[in-house]
Write the structure tokens for this entry.
Amino acid sequence: MITRVALCALCVWYIVTTFALVRAWSSEWALAVHVAERAPEKPRALVNLARAALLRGDLEVASAALDCAERAAARPWVPAWDREDARSAVAANRRLLSVL
Amino acid sequence: MVWVAALIVVVLYLQPATWVYEDLTWLQMATAEPVFWAPRGLARWSWWWQQVHGQPYLAFRAVSVAVFVTSGYVLWHLGRRLGLSARVSGVIVALWLLHPLQVETVAYAAQRGELIAGLGVLVACRVASGPIRWWSPVAIVAALVFGWLGKESAVVGLLLVPLICWACQGWRWALGVTTVSAAIIAGGVAWQFGGLAGLVNVEIYADRVTWWQWVQYQAAAVNLLLGWAIWPTMAITPDPDIDRLSVLSPVAGLVSLAILGAVALWAWRAHRLIAVGLLWCLLAFVPRFVVQTPRSYLNAHQFYVPLMGLVLAAGGVIKHD
């Protein structure tokens, strides 16, 4: 009886979490927001948020996300390759932002 | 139980959605008919076919869901062959189908190859679990080739088929299959990848990542993916330090794998299914955590096939309860 109740509870827990994750994977914007919320100090997550905002035409959010990405990339524990990738992506997106 | 879980999966996944992340790259690649007989050839071909027929995004996801649910059905059969009752096997398949770690593989259309690879591996293992007929070796090879046409990750089947043979067949058959698998693995590594450096994708990071950082990434992947498998809520809660690799990460990763291996060996005689499940998880996971790059070390689809092993082990625990 205890095993059955535990397994039912486990299934309900899985369904609720899966539902939340499927919603996150429903669009570029929803995914970018989910990842940025989950890993708010990860440079690539913030660059992707900026890209998604650009695609939506939300230039203010894109600019703010690029600022955050730049700050995140400067953190001492970010590995050199990651910092390099993030900075070049930030620069490319800033160029795009300046044209729009 | 399996059908109820499958129905929930359909309802959960077939919601209004659209392309995300690298899907569009795949769509661009799918404008011309791809080479079929190559790794990911079948996955690319299926994309191309759907695109040519003008199908909407939801049709792409529906195909992924169909492959996923079919895999669940084959896993149910495998559970039965490994000694589980229909009900317990249904429970573990429900856990596998509903697990949040599967979302990335199923909802992300670009990962269809991983689903095909998983299905190929499952079918090969189901056939290897017996009863053995004259056509069984042909069917195993065909299933593994099918998986490989989905994604090269199906090569873990060369480790999992011998494991299932050791669990279900006599030692002569198991030894034969193991020898053939080992020869294919050795030949494949030498021919396809030109040595270990090519296999582990290390060359593009050679000047940018030290060997110690490489070890830390792989260990962090072990810790996090195992953690998410056991406690899935971790996959949705904020973790600002997710990329902050600690000196203790490799130690924790090695200890986790060692515990899995030790429990599996201890359980081999008395609790065979628990042992098989844990060894399945180890064998399917270890090659992945060597080849994944620092950019992709936290991809949840890395754990798609290993999770099958964990639920099989769970089935062994439930059976003894």
